Amino acid sequence: MARVATERPQHETEARMDIGFIGLGVMGQAMALNLARAGTQLIVWNRSGERCEPLRAAGATVAESPDDIFRKARVVILMLADGDAVDAVLGRGTPQFRTNVAQHTIVHMGTTSPEYSRGLEADIRAADGSYVEAPVSGSRKPAEAGQLVAMLAGDSAAVESVRPLLQPICHQTTVCGPVPRGLLMKLAVNLFLITTVTGLAEAAHFAEQHGLDMQQFRAVVDAGQIASAISRVKILKLVTRDFDVQASITDVLKNNRLVAEAAREAKVASPLLDVCYALFGETLALGHGHADMAAVVHAIEARTASGA
């Protein structure tokens, strides 16, 4: 049965041990800052060194290399873009891999395919390490606010040892069972998120094309029974045409692909997701890869303009 953490414990125990954090992108930097500000004794590394400076200012130690982190921290959190990036920092496929992961707990918080995660767990355990899958639901704003939702999977002892460390990052953690059930849960949640935001973008386009007052449209949606935290954020972006990134088109397209691949592998129909996959691909082709996912409206507008 899934268990939910509802309180934020004190972090005195965690503060006395080094925790490594690798990957300071849009989400990772905010997550690491919340850990540092909560008193976690943090050591960080990022491929682009300038992303480390806010962490240094918050009291974290900046490592010279990923290997430096593994020498100094027994628990290492990875918030990286894909499996290739994870393999690179772990030294997977090289003799350094065992040195890096033996007697360590590796916490994989990014989004990769479930099969990749299953293989990574096997390799880490074979090298005498522990592995926790901990993908999160949320985007930049929830990451900054410490309001992410983590879906944990792995050996129960390893999961329970990591769970308290995540409290400055997540307002809820749910234990999903063995690997890769955390990532499968994340993909299911992503399917709902992607189709919901795409539907909202289509609705906004429909309203605009019919000459409706867009502020009234926003007010009605915000007041209705289908309103949510995500709809309120994304409808504001659509109405104001502010596509400053929270979750980028490129990242959402990657996640969409992962869900579609998992659906195909399990022979599960995903008709709404497949339409979204096409639309996000078209948005990327239009040059909006670094815009927020609400910018998928550009692909819908292009179809209208072409008479599609």
What does this entry look like structurally?
The structure is a single chain. This protein is of the alpha/beta class. The protein has 15 helices and nine strands. Strands 1, 2, 3, 4, 5, 6, 7, 8 and 9 form a nine-stranded mixed beta sheet that branches. Helix 10 (181-209) crosses helix 12 and helix 14 packs across helix 15 (297-306). It is globular, with a radius of gyration of 20 Å.
Unreliable residue stretches: 1-16
Q: Tell me roughly what share of residues is in helical segments.
A: 40-55%
Q: What Rg is obtained from the alpha carbons, in whole angstroms? A: 20 Å
For the biggest sheet, the summary is: 9 strands, mixed
Strand coverage percent = 5-15%
Mean pLDDT over all positions: 94
Instruction: Tally the beta strands.
Output: 9
Helix-strand topology string: HEHEHEHEHHEHEEHEHEHHHHHH
Q: Pairing-aware structural class of the strands and helices?
A: alpha/beta
**Contiguous helical run count:** 15
Straight-line N-to-C gap: 47 Å
Shape: globular
